[in-house]
Amino acid sequence: MPDIAAPQAHIDLPDTGTQTRRVESASVFWLLVVAGSLLLPLSWLLPWFVEQTASGKGNSPMDVIVSSPTGIGWFAIWVMGLCMLALFAGVGYDAWAVLTRRGQPFRYGRICAGLAALGALCVLLVVVLVASRTELVFGSTSPDVLIDNAVWMMLTGFVLLAFAYGLRGWVMNHGGLAFTAVAFAIGGLFPLMFNQAPSFVVWGAQSAGIYVLLALGLNVVVGFAGLLDLGYAAFFAIGAYTTASFAGSAHDFHLPFWILIFLGAAVAGLFGAILGFPTLRLRGDYLAIVTLGFGEIVPDLAQNNVLGLTHGPNGLSGIDTPAFPLHGGPLDFGIFGANPRPYYWTTLVLIALVVLLLRNVERSRLGRAWVAIREDEVAASATGINTVTGKLLAFAIGAAVSGFAGAFFAAELQSVTPESFQFAVSVTALTTVVLGGIGNITGVVVGAILVSFVIFWVLPSLQGWMGTLGSNIGVQQLGTIQYSDYKFIVYGLILIGIMLLRPSGLLPSRARKVELETGAESEPLAAVQERA
Amino acid sequence: MPNGEAPAAPATVSVPRRPRPNRPLATQLRLRFAASSGQAFLVLLITGFAAMVVAEFASKGVAQAGAQVVNGLQIGAIYALIAVGYTMVYGIIELINFAHGDVFTFGGMLSVWIGAGFGALGLDLTKLATSNVGGLIAALAIIFPLTMLCTGTLGVVIERVAYRRLRNAPRLAPLITAIGMSFLLQGIMFVAAGSGNYPARKDDWITGRAFTIGSVNVSWPQLFVIVIAVAMMLGLQMFVRYTRVGKAMRATAQDRDAALLSGININRTISLTFFIGSAMAAVGGIVYAIYFNLLQWNLGFKFGIIAFTAAVLGGIGNILGAGVGGFLIGLIYAFGSDLAGGEWGNSIIFAMLILVLTLRPNGLLGMRVPDRA
Amino acid sequence: MALLEVDGIVKRFGGLVAVNGVSFEVDTGEIVSMIGPNGAGKTTAFNCITGLYPLTDGDVRFDDISLVGMPPHRITKLGITRTFQNIRLFSYMTAVDNVMVGEHCRMRAKVWDDLLHTRKARREEHEVESRALATLRRLGLERYADVYARNLPYGLQRRLEIARALASGPRLLLLDEPAAGLNPNEKVELMGVISSLRDAGLTIFLIEHDMRVVMSISDRIVVLDYGEKIAEGTPAEVRENPRVIDAYLGHGASEAMRSA
Questions:
Q1: What subunits make at least 3 CB pairs under 8 angstroms with A?
Q2: Which of B341, B327, B338, B328 is nearest to B56 (CA)?
Q3: Residue from A395, A230, A290 nearest B354 by CA
Q4: Is the pTM of this model over 0.80?
Q5: Residue from the list A285, A304, A430 with its beta carbon closest to the beta carbon of B343
Q6: What is the C-alpha separation between A299 and A422, in angstroms, rounded?
Q7: C54/B21 CB distance under 8 A
Q8: Which has the closest alpha carbon to A218: A18, A437, A422?
Q9: C21–B13 CB contact, under 8 Å
């Protein structure tokens, strides 16, 4: 066929993806460099600081290392210090070159990478020589192992710098991937760096981890498919009750945890599709209320001990502890005990898995179909998309992620009660998604961490801090306020503030940003057909 | 059909009727369902409700069933008062004002605080109310207008702060701020009133038995609640139908742009709608406080959802529909809880919510949701 | 047997009969236009054919398969795609993504492939992307592949909508007022596009108001007025038809023209 002449009109090409991606990737590189450069000095300051405030004069990290049985510790320390100084020189030169636009940045990039790698090696050497103990990983969190914090922090700093400089080209081209990889690496080392605060790890495993999963799943429904689901806690409950029923004394089933989390996801996904079905014809706001009704019925049924399965308000308890495969065999370290770290790492693995799957689906045929349905359901249908399956799949996948989280939650707490699945859970999940950025995977993860940090760590801790502060400055009342009571106000302020000031959230998804600020609502096909 | 001859301009096109094509069963079912789900719901509702009434009277006896009727009407009156706010606001800006249920609770609490305020000024309203009928009327005449004024203003402020800027945003945006507003109000009440029951101490304002029909007693508080609700509802209906401002509200509800072009002050009309809706919710809150004597910080969540169901059931945008829906839902709740046990009351209501919204979103009185293209 | 047979379709909105017993056929390889005054029921007829509106009565057959009661995406998959009178692109997607959405019903990847990013899904995604770019090139839009649809000028948006419709590999293309809002140059280009599509083997059925466009590219014309078909024939026949003239210019206009 004849080619049709290109149109004469010249138009400006507004941001064409690739440019933006470059910029983001460059900022990821600098983020890594700054984070690494900060961690290195911090690793020296932290133990000193904690010792000053908490455990009094004890063995400073230097003392421990220096008094180590082998003299090589000294040597390693010296090399480490020199590496660090040289690195700062290199990074400083780069910063100067970029900020003043003079000089040639990254001239000593390779040297920096080498120095950082050498530093990391030295740290490892110190770990092996000085500590040479496995409790650095699974061990106690008592305050006299202050040195561990410093060591892990320093290691992280060196590794970050080595990674950033060593793979600079790759990082510049794959900013998102690099960011994700590093985020997970830091997330994984996190409990080691902050073993002074075991409550932090518990928080990470129980609140942050769970809410990250919930946010990821809710984001499929709200962010990708554009359907507001206010009953999201129901699927969380279904996943949790599934696990509780099949792995515990409640019904005397004992399936392994690693099967159950997928079973919980599947059951919840099934219910998601079932709930999705009657809502297909509804417009956004009615859909929200119907899902809300569903979200209220499920804990209500559990409360009323439906079919004798849920044991009423007391819930199900005595759930089996997760164990590694081959129970009692070589791979089972018996580590899932009172120690929160293994749970934390399990959450992290689950999150990584979910992020991977959702990123895949976002960039695929189904992800595109969701965007189309969200933007204009009628046009999507006329273009050949089965909007019914599309929406049901969004509900099902979102619910499955929630069920996944629920299954893990049940295994972690070892008991489930209907109270854990109230409307507030759905609203918390919604708040995390709205705060982080509707439709953006990274955004909602950050949002979930922030929200759960404020609600489940800062607010509960605030009373203690304020009590100390109050008694120091003579205002005793500060310590008598129940700061956790203010969490509903915090939710409310976040939701209102974000929607009014920055509707696309802290880290907006590029497409959703314009949509949320200017877009119109897509009317369901069924509504159009019914009206006709 | 290539046309050889000049088209002979037929006067009427006569179409040979073909037999209906054979459609797959699934398609048939789909079409059938789409066409009849509304009627199906009506049948379900009528038969279900009738069955409930019969079962109630048969199993519990006339006395208890009659008491449940009065109970249902009385709680339904409160639902109706809240539902009015939902229906008016949805009618005019198509927003589910999620915070409305909490405005209701807030109204109830505010009436307590206002009473306390007068107590602090030296005027003990409870003493006044319990002295004689004149005193009671005086106390009510103080509490009602003041609370309605304050709560109505709260409604106006909520609209101004949280919804007005998002009027042209995608519908999800104001809905999310509405949820935020709901949590904000709940949070404030949680901090102010604590997590447990908040005593309203109005139980002795109105007491005693009003009259007895057969073996069914109707107490003064029950009569009071129902009469207030019906009177408010009728008054509001008259207001919207016959006054100039009411006409402006109806015009704005039908077509905001056209109303604007006809010189109606849209913002003022919408503010007024919020004021009236919130004031009505405040009435609900006051009578709730008088009747039940206890308030909870999150009371409005459940009541709001139920009242919204009532509004949809009655046909959203329709004030009398909200009243009818409120009473109907109240009766269903009363019978349902009595038959199945109180702990099932919520499940029944939420099941109603899902059924109404999915099967008959246009409600009983069939007022269509205005389509905004 | 014609490709598309529309047989006595009726569409009633409450009391209003928007389309009343309209029948016509479209043969393979034809360009057929539907014209009529505003409110004659043209777009409604389109919506009935593509499954957007359920029919009140009558039958629509494509390739001898009845389309009645079929959801729109199945009809698209059978080989009928359409464009919309008021352009309905996915505004916040890039041009190439819009076209890739069009390919949706031709893709075979299942949910599992999408979730796990299997080799099958990746290969298909790759193929679809290059096919979409080829479609854009075919319509002269390759420069704009990465531009958001909403940022394209109006004429190009119309063109992109045709590209999206083509992506599903249709046999019959329904265009709802493709020339509306285009300037004369763009109209000429559009006519070129349409006839080249026909040359490539497509059948085209369009609604159009612009008589120059209609008369110059149509093989046959169907005329609607008040929901009924009042005429059908070649452009020359339709131009002379007194009922058509009356419908457009008011009752008695044909008399006046004849006597003038």
A1: B, C
A2: B338
A3: A290
A4: yes
A5: A304
A6: 7
A7: no
A8: A437
A9: yes
